[in-house]
Amino acid sequence: MNLSQRPRRNRKTETIRNLTQETWINKKKLIYPLFLLEKPTAKQEISSMPGIFRLGLEELLHEIEECLKLGIFSFVIFPVVEDQKKDKFASYSYAQDNFYLHALRYVKEKFPETCIITDVAMDPYSSDGHDGLVENGKIINDKTLEILAKMSLAQAQTGIDYLGPSDMMDGRVGYIREHLDQNGYTEVGIISYTAKYASAFYGPFRDALDSAPRFGDKKTYQMNPANARESEWEAELDFSEGADILMVKPALAYLDIIYRLKNQVPIPIAAYNVSGEYSMIKASAKMGYIDEKKAILEVLTSIFRAGADIILTYHAKEMGAIL
Ligand code: PBG
């Protein structure tokens, strides 16, 4: 055969394959999600997420210390709030004696080299299990913004690095940014959940937090999985309202959205490799259907290849050990 072009030449040896590899997983680009319990010494495995635990503050500090040794420096922390502290207004989210706020302050004091990201949303604290204020069965956008702004300021005051509004209310990035700036917190950043889809892949996370909606679903605020152009609208808004990093969520079924936003805005793009994506790999590996380690590497590589600058993933700690 007279073939002048033979792509296989660049796949000849391991060394050559490494030289010509376009995408590498870098553990400095991974964020590890952690679930915080109120009782300091508690540790509970989440049954639908093997290997992931809800941790009290003492255990959480221990976990962070182990991650730092493995080269994982960035964390997003979610609070597990007891039912009796939940109400319609999520008022515990900015209460003086809130254990989550206390823990955030403690973590940053003890490990100043970490990057700590918070969760800004009503659902962990809401008796309705929604990300917004509910009136007559509807999610009320503008009144929710006032609650999110109070929650954001309380979190910013703990010394964290980025707020992570995960609620999908309209106008929240601008409203939070203005509230922070007016109070002198110009250096606290916002990682905005920009294109967050109404997805089936959040199931295990809602188990972890016991935060499933008490009625209905989240389709009036989270995006329709069938829509791509709409993500560009959301991205334009969050960028112009002052977000520092945009996020696409989930990651795997939305690689095209990551690719779009990467080409649209000049700020970093994060992707959330969510709970259901993690559990799918763990479950099929347990059944012996796939090679777990190879599947994790392939999944994370594909998210970076699509254009993500940063990945939030429950695999972060195990990747720290593998890489
Ligand atoms: C809610 C929130 C969710 C996740 C992060 N923040 C779930 C939801 O929208 O119901 C999901 C993360 C995951 O599945 O890993 N504010």
Report on this model:
The protein is α/β, with parallel strands linked by helices. It has one domain: Aldolase class I (TIM Barrel, Alpha-Beta Barrel). The chain has eleven helices and twelve strands. Strands 1, 2, 3, 4, 5, 8, 9, 10, 11 and 12 form a ten-stranded mixed beta sheet that branches. Helix 3 links the parallel strand 4 (74-79) and strand 5 (115-117). Helix 4 (141-156) packs across helix 5 and helix 7 (229-240) packs across helix 8. The protein starts with 13 loop residues before the first helix and ends with a helix. Residues 119, 121, 123, 131, 166-167, 202, 205-206, 218, 274-275 line the site of ligand PBG.
Number of beta strands: 12
Q: What proportion of the residues is helical, as a percent range?
A: 25-40%
* CATH homologous group name: Aldolase class I
Number of helices: 11
Decide which structural class fits the backbone. Answer: alpha/beta
Low-confidence region ranges: none
**CATH architectural category:** Alpha-Beta Barrel
Strand content: 15-25%
